[in-house]
Amino acid sequence: MNAIQLDSKGCLKHFLGIEGLKSDLLIKILDTAASLINNKAVKKVPLLRGKTVVNLFFEPSTRTRTTFELAAKRLSADVLNFNINTSSSSKGENLIDMLRNLDAMHCDMFIVRHNAVGAAHFMAQHVAPQISIINAGDGQHEHPTQAMLDMYTIRQYKGDFAPLRVAIVGDIRHSRVARSNIHALRILGVSELRVVGPKTLIPKGIEALGVKVFNNLKSGLRDVDVIIMLRLQRERMQSALLPSANEYFQSYGLTEERLKIAHPEAIVMHPGPINRGVEIDSSVVDGKRSVILQQVSNGIAVRMAIMAITLGTLSEQKESH
Amino acid sequence: MNAIQLDSKGCLKHFLGIEGLKSDLLIKILDTAASLINNKAVKKVPLLRGKTVVNLFFEPSTRTRTTFELAAKRLSADVLNFNINTSSSSKGENLIDMLRNLDAMHCDMFIVRHNAVGAAHFMAQHVAPQISIINAGDGQHEHPTQAMLDMYTIRQYKGDFAPLRVAIVGDIRHSRVARSNIHALRILGVSELRVVGPKTLIPKGIEALGVKVFNNLKSGLRDVDVIIMLRLQRERMQSALLPSANEYFQSYGLTEERLKIAHPEAIVMHPGPINRGVEIDSSVVDGKRSVILQQVSNGIAVRMAIMAITLGTLSEQKESH
Amino acid sequence: MNAIQLDSKGCLKHFLGIEGLKSDLLIKILDTAASLINNKAVKKVPLLRGKTVVNLFFEPSTRTRTTFELAAKRLSADVLNFNINTSSSSKGENLIDMLRNLDAMHCDMFIVRHNAVGAAHFMAQHVAPQISIINAGDGQHEHPTQAMLDMYTIRQYKGDFAPLRVAIVGDIRHSRVARSNIHALRILGVSELRVVGPKTLIPKGIEALGVKVFNNLKSGLRDVDVIIMLRLQRERMQSALLPSANEYFQSYGLTEERLKIAHPEAIVMHPGPINRGVEIDSSVVDGKRSVILQQVSNGIAVRMAIMAITLGTLSEQKESH
Fold this sequence. Notes:
The structure is a homotrimer of 321-residue chains. Chain A is of the alpha/beta class and 321 residues long. The first copy, chain A, has helices at residues 23-36, 62-74, 95-104, 119-126, 144-158, 176-187, 217-221, 235-238, 245-252, 256-259, 282-285, 292-310, 313-320, and strands spanning 37-38, 41-42, 52-57, 78-83, 109-114, 132-138, 165-169, 192-196, 212-214, 226-229, 267-269. The first copy, chain A, has a five-stranded parallel β-sheet. In chain A, strand 3 (52-57), helix 2 (62-74) and strand 4 form a beta-alpha-beta unit. At the A-B interface, strand 4 and helix 3 of A face strand 2, helix 2 and helix 12 of B.
């Protein structure tokens, strides 16, 4: 499904999903992101000057949209924001016609978030050849830029991926973050990858992806180097997959006490926004093992790197030197 | 009514309507737009650097606003967007006070869309002398930038206007696009100009504008070089001016079959957004005679040209060389 | 409360309130703003190039947000706009987490408007050290940038503050503009400062701030050099603090006739938006003593000055020469 994100030379044309990518491509993204960070901050660079980046958000998410908007502006691109309510087909224009119109206006990149699996892939198949598509989350499928910023953060704190034990904790079933992270961590070759959560929230047969399943949090956390907590969607509780936020926290909430079961230098990650006291205790969020805000920081540089790589402006820059 | 758009030297100060303009001014706009297109794309230029362009949209239109926003950004202007709900007079500030405040903030250009005829003209009479107004559609009156991008597209495909037979098809009565295009095509001197549609949708006495009226689509399309389809507003059907979308398509929808009546090299245009299957068949929209997406592309360059001409930054540029 | 806006060297780090500031700091802001105005207009300058300014508006105000957005863009900053509905805690993220995330994205400045007193102060105490906060209005407490543009306008027309008699007229009780202006005018040392309004709208004990209270408009206006009219919030009338708009205008509305009581060269100011015919007659708004639009113009330069001073980019610029 993700084959269309590579061009005929194997270069990244779109960024739709982690599944199926090679490790050297992931490493290139991480290295490029690192090169954009100078003295802990990202400086404004002209890599996308004159380019037009369009945020096409069919699901509301001020937070994710903002990180892409900031990344684009720090690359000196022009940015257009569209928040599209899919329930009202205002003026009846269909999606394909909308894309073709944006094509015709010589836009260069679409950042797409949609609640339907494969929405970004669909667009990548229908846009003009000069346009790159970035998947900013498609249903419960993938959220590949989140996975890359998570990989960046893990490498920043842990260096080599090979010896690591990583646990992803929470609602694995409905999480595109979990899915993209599982692919990325397998590709980058961590020693052991665990998913931890109640049976109702772990898809059957997920072991085929190369993960170990734990339904008990304490067992799942034992000796891990990296803990990736997932956001608990409150809707799940209404749908009877879960009893209550309180009960969930009793069994799967990450507390200071439980954190001690992990490796003493384990890092705690979370994609945000956080439900303090539901999936994670406030003291852990703000504690010394938390790298959650560092993830947010890294998100800007990683997204800048992905934008510059897919639009091919990095190589152009080198050529012009 | 449009006299106020020219300054004392006959230069374009505002762009409010096509009616009454001279052909050399229209040609100047087309030539300027052509000069901004390089290798099929519009590059970012600094013609409006340091200028502030304000989108004042009293009617919602993401699509048209986007084309103006993109045009302004490609001219390196700063852009402010206001979507103003005219039904709620939030905080009770009146329109004149709002304009004066934007004047005082040293804004340079207002792009105005309003459902009232003459809204842009009214503003042009009330703003400070350094400000230029662009009419982005006033009620059922004019939509002059749409007409200019249509003229650009016709010239691109057909060269000289003089020998052309042009048909405008659909709801002539309620269409500001039709009105502006009729004026532009008369000024540029096409050989024959037809309007085609049901009697209820063609204003009485429109022949005075120099057009021939056809109530039968087949007769209207015979041997024409250019077909301009209009969007059918579904509201018209509720107001009893039209029976149903289906019945309308039977009589006035443009199909591949009917297109054969026109000149074999006729082009098909549409201002968008398209109601596929209502005023035009999908296969015609996507067919080889359609230049609809080229219209969208041209819209950016044409709007850039109009902005630069009205603000006088083109001549400044020349002088500074 | 405002001590936290100064850094350890006494330089302005945040701009939260006028109360407690020294006159030389206010004069520095006015002088810096003057240096940004060239031939009556503000030119675009690169003082904040590469900086990210975030508008955090928890109260809707297109007007004030626009002036900050324009000021930031004329300083060449990148701007993000957030209109936050405090009643819906969408996705349940709390304010502190939101601030920390924006910190982590390396934003440089937050412009904060909130209906709670002290909101900007609270944020200033919780953001990362590199971030500056500007108070764009906190409840009924302060609106310090409005006061500074008012001071700029008074100095522009009257020169020295020392000999001036100033009257602030209207709803003193609920006005953050009044509060900030009273502090600024006392600090800059006007000869006499009056507040004028009905008893219900003047807080008890306000004389402690160094003002004289007048409940009669004619007495209050006698021989004053500057009249600062306040906007009357219509909500006040529903809350029984006031009888009716009409009756209010009879007693406290500024008319041409009443204006004659003031000094013949008195200027009339208003923070906008204006209720014509409620607190002020239309003919006075548009009359020759009105400097209301000049206030709006000055607002851009004054806000630019405050942004550049708090971010320390003015001194950097000098050093780099």
